[in-house]
Structure formats: structure tokens, C-alpha cells
TrEMBL record:
Annotated ranges, domain Cell wall elongation regulator TseB-like: 44-81
Organism: Brevibacillus agri
Listed name of the protein: Cell wall elongation regulator TseB-like domain-containing protein
Database matches in Pfam families: TseB
InterPro entries recorded: Cystatin_sf, TseB-like_dom
Amino acid sequence: MLVRIIVGAIIALLVTGAGFAYHLTASVAGERNQFEATVREWVQARTTIAEIESIDEYRGTESYAVVIGKNNAGTPVVAWMTAEKVAFDRMDLAVPRKNVEEAVSKAFPQSEITHIVPGLEKDKKFWEVTVKDANGRYHYLHYDLFSGALLASYVLSPT
């Protein structure tokens, strides 16, 4: 009898945990889908981007939706967008993402690149690279979008 009660309690906890995990996953996926749908509407209404390659998010002093794609003429472009404003530039003039990845891999050989996104702070446009090193610290590196020069480097230690 006691074994049945314990097994029943364990099953109830597992079902509750699975339900919670499903709800959390569905909620996060739903928010991501809504974000992308909103950004696609912004792109259509406020830019000349005809083909979207990626939608990402940059979170600095101000958060932006970051859209990389091609305009009506086929030129690679990037747009940083909020509900109120849009900044735009050409990606064919930028240092390629692949080159930034290679430079970071050489500078941090035992680390993992976790995120790369074009960033925008005031009028500065850059590649923001997030790297997790072997000690679990996160490095945020800003490389000038057009010259590739290192602009800033921040390290966050795990607590």
C-alpha cells in the first residue's frame, strides 16, 4: 500500500513537471514566433528588404531587432529596428561574419562562440560576439562592422 502511494506521488510529480516544462517551452516558442512575426511586418512596411536571411536581437543600452537580408536590388543589407526607429546599412561593405568568427577563434582557441549579431550603440555599428571561455566566463567583444578593429571587450565572471 505504501509503495503504491509513493509510486502514485512520483507519477503525479512527473506529470506535473512535464506539464510545466511543456507550458514553459510553448510559451517561449510562442513569444519567439510573435517577435519574428512583428519584425517581418516592420520589414515589409518600413524597409526595402525583399529577402530576409536572419532575424536576431541585439540587447545593449537599447534593444533592437536585427534583420540581415537583401534589398530589392539584391544588395546585402542589415536593419536595426525598434517600434519607433530604423537604422540601415549595407552588409557588402562590412567585414564578413566568417572573418570575425575566425579572428575570435584564434584569439580564444579554447572557447565557444555562443552568439554573433550586428550591434548598434549610438552611431557605432559593430559585430557583437559572445564567447564562453574554458572557465565559464562570458566575453562580449565588439568589432567595428566595417574595419574589423576591436572596439571593446567585456568579461563577466560566473557567480
